[in-house]
Amino acid sequence: MEQRAVRVCVIGDELVAGVGDPRGLGWVGRVAARTPTPTPLTVLPLAVPGETTAELSQRWDLEVSRRTHPEADNRLVIGLGRADLDAGISPARSRLNLANVLDIAQRRGLEVFVVGPPPGGPHADGVGELSAAFADVTTRRAIPYVETFAPLVGHEQWAADLAAGDGSHPGQAGYGLLAWLVLHTGWHHWLGLPTD
Q1: C-beta separation of 33 from 25 below 8 A
Q2: Which residues of the chain have pLDDT under 50?
Q3: Which residues pair with 41 in a beta bridge?
Q4: What letter would DSSP give residue 6?
Q5: SS percent in the chain: helix, strand, coil, step 5
Q6: Whole-model pTM above 0.90?
Q7: Residues 191, 35: contact at Cβ < 8 Å?
Q8: Which domains does the chain have, with CATH numbers?
Q9: pLDDT for 3
Q10: 26-33 and 172-183 helices cross at what angle (nearest 10)?
């Protein structure tokens, strides 16, 4: 049986767009470049800088549905950021917003993969709690979740990369670390590819 082309929409904030990366790849470009597939892989980043989960939940469905194809293996990656903390959105509301997106995506038949918020920014203390809330929502739905906060919160290279920039967005090294975490936390399995 012929395999269908894989079409992956990636929604999220400026980290999905790779803001701060001098190479312009971000973690999404690095992951796509390191994903060998037997069929064509199309990765479509749909980033909105500073987007909260409330805003994401309002816009994602229309944008993603315009980019899916009936003959493709359509998938959704959600790159979650830290904007909810800046906007004063409670972890409970953030959880609900993510749950709504996941439930609709699953009803639409989309396979979903979620990347959590990394450390950094002015509300650094709240990122761990936010990440734990997101992880709980995905675990309850058996959806893969990449925890980026815990592995990077004390990581010297991550901290140095943030400090060299604006304190919120990584540079080339930081996006490389995010890509490594994604690639080594179930990405290939999620796409049905060999993990060797």
Answers
A1: yes
A2: 1
A3: 6
A4: E
A5: 45, 15, 40
A6: yes
A7: yes
A8: 6-188 (3.40.50.1110)
A9: 77
A10: 50
